[in-house]
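Dear colleague,

Following up on yesterday's call, I've attached the two folding results inline so they're easy to grep. Please treat them as preliminary; we haven't cross-checked anything against experimental data yet. The first protein's sequence and structure tokens come first.
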Amino acid sequence: MGGDEDDEELPDHREPRTVCHLCGGVGEIAHPVLGVLGGVPRTVNAGRVCYLCEGDSALPGQCPPL
């Protein structure tokens, strides 16, 4: 009954993927900026989207780190 529906959602094959070397699979890279919290200056991590994987956390294919 429910097994037929699950088979339709999954592709027949999956391409190999590599965890992004720049962000480590998080999809974001740290962008520390100065912020004032409660009158005290602190470093605040404003994450930005990884430009290598574009936030996908992985690269298509098998990519060795260069």
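Below is the second protein, in the same order (sequence, then structure):
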Amino acid sequence: MEKALGLVLGLSRIFALIAGVALTIMMCLTVADVIGRAGGYPILGTAELVSLICVIAVGFAVPLTSFRRRHVYMEFLIERMGRKAKNAVNTATRVVTFLLFGLAGTNLFHMGAEFAASKEVSMALTMPFYPFAYAAGICCFLQSAVCLCEIVKIWEGKYE
């Protein structure tokens, strides 16, 4: 099981790195567009491209954020519970999250297939949408794997 946990953590780290690169690209593109607009040379499709890259920046950051438990949650409710109750609540929330992200990932893959079949593209740059839908779906599946890892940690008593 340690290998599976290590694999999920490793993939989450790679995804977070990709998210950081995407965020940097968004920032540089926005700054270049603002400077270009000031000089009368705006970059065509900047808003469109930033919106698409945002899918990567946000989606790819979620798994590692969850793995490291850096997200916001209602800890004060759980703190007052005993160990068994905490484990039950944590397991239940992870199961629900696993199911929701699994469903979202499946739907994003279906959406990506529809985008690919219809050859749907963005307005200004005519960039296809399907790679971004597939990428978001992959992120959802990795998030589901993170939830499974957390459930295993809870059961093994290693979840803090």
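For the second protein, one point worth flagging: The helical segments are 2-38, 46-59, 62-67, 75-79, 83-118, 130-156.

Best wishes,
A.L.
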